[in-house]
Amino acid sequence: MRPVQTVAGPLSPSAVRGPVLPHEHLALDLRRAGNREAVLDGSHVPDIAGELSLLRERFGLSLVVDQTCRGMGRDTATLGRISAGSGVAVVAATGWYCEAFHPPEVRRTDSGRLADVMVREIVDGTGPLRIRPGLIGEIGSHGEQPSGAEARVFTAAARAAVRTGLSVATHARLGAGGLAQLGLLTGRGLAPHRVAIGHQDLLDDPVTHRRLAAEGAYVSFDTIGKSGYQDDTVRLRLLLALLDAGYAGRVLLSCDVSRRTHLSARGGTGYGHLFRTFLPRVRAAGVTDAVIDLMTRRNPLRFLTGAGDEDGADALP
């Protein structure tokens, strides 16, 4: 398996012995949506690093993927500070979010040149420290079909992924449009096992989940704990249905912390809700520790490294 590119450099997957949070935000700015709480900046570094450090000590948290990309307030230098302060490896991302957050560069640039922008960041790094992204995402759309601008970004993301070997994670608003997203990405030559379709725990549609998994994509249940969007009881039912259908190897689990009020230091459920609250319910439902390790460690590592079923299953301890 290829190394995982973190903010501190390449990391061997065999060194990741604990769980991975594959869809989180450690630094972002989404204030254009009118929500002043949608900011995680340098002032939150002590709270976030402290929380991740506790999760490392208690649950073995080994790796966090920050899916904050261009136009979302990405700050790779802050990610480096959080990683160093917590002892938890962090992956940065590149790409563009949904159309409401597209900067002017997207509106005036074709998909080929957008792909070139991502490839340059992946190869040469970004920010003052030239930190290299280890993921393309979260590439976003709102609705059953991406808008024209969003479709250009999906096309660019697929091209950049094919050229660099990185995988692509998506933002599907309320879980809608995942099949269309997957079709756009695979239609440009990207293998489905290098795609993770986001926010599927917000879509109460087990048939769609099975279709995505059957195509070979990862199905992200990545807003766990966000009760304002969905109750965890529904998430548990949807997860168990996917496991019963035989698709444990296509599940990713995370919490998508994206507001300062989500931080445990501010009274929120925090980055550890998955480990403290949700996974005990999964175990109580009869899911084994081996399957939980598959969903929380082996699957995200296979996704990040682009490993297929034939070459990723036995390469991890």
TrEMBL record:
Cross-referenced Gene3D superfamilies: Metal-dependent hydrolases
Domain of life: Bacteria
Pfam families in the record: PTE
Keyword annotations of the record: Hydrolase, Metal-binding
InterPro entries (UniProt xref): Metal_Hydrolase (IPR032466), Phosphotriesterase (IPR001559)
Family indicated by similarity: Belongs to the metallo-dependent hydrolases superfamily. Phosphotriesterase family.
Listed name of the protein: Phosphotriesterase
Organism expressing this protein natively: Streptomyces gamaensis
Lineage: Bacteria, Bacillati, Actinomycetota, Actinomycetes, Kitasatosporales
